[in-house]
């Protein structure tokens, strides 16, 4: 049975689903990525976010919120990465409660090795394809990906049914 509601976009939707499933499968699994230590895609996202926002000195809860990770899962990930030497924890002189995370020098070395490996093994080809596409199409495709990501939270957009409870 063909699902008519997908119209001519069935193949496109299938590829988005395949990507999502593949990513979900590897999200927490740790790999070497041609480096001397193992880390997961979720840990990699944290390192990348911190490197891109280093000057902001954001605390752990701010970063977890920006990445859409629960505070407890984020904290567990951070602790694993601190033990591996990828990250370092700090606090400010005026607030000992807020923990500030920085990528260690070792973490920066590992990220450099990883990024070169990722570029050569997959991103280079992807970027070559993207170079053939006009920027406005890439912007539209980015919108499609954002909408696809929001679809995983469809239930969150629905208001919970409110029941009235009689006061006696």
TrEMBL record:
Chain segments annotated as coiled-coil in the UniProt record: none
Matching Pfam families: MarR_2
UniProt cross-references to SUPFAM superfamilies, sorted A to Z: Winged helix' DNA-binding domain
InterPro entries, A to Z: ArsR-like_HTH (IPR011991), HTH_MarR-typ (IPR000835), Tscrpt_reg_MarR-type_CS (IPR023187), WH-like_DNA-bd_sf (IPR036388), WH_DNA-bd_sf (IPR036390)
Keywords: DNA-binding, Transcription, Transcription regulation
Every HTH marR-type domain range: 1-156
Stated name of the protein: MarR family winged helix-turn-helix transcriptional regulator
Origin organism lineage: Bacteria, Bacillati, Bacillota, Clostridia, Eubacteriales
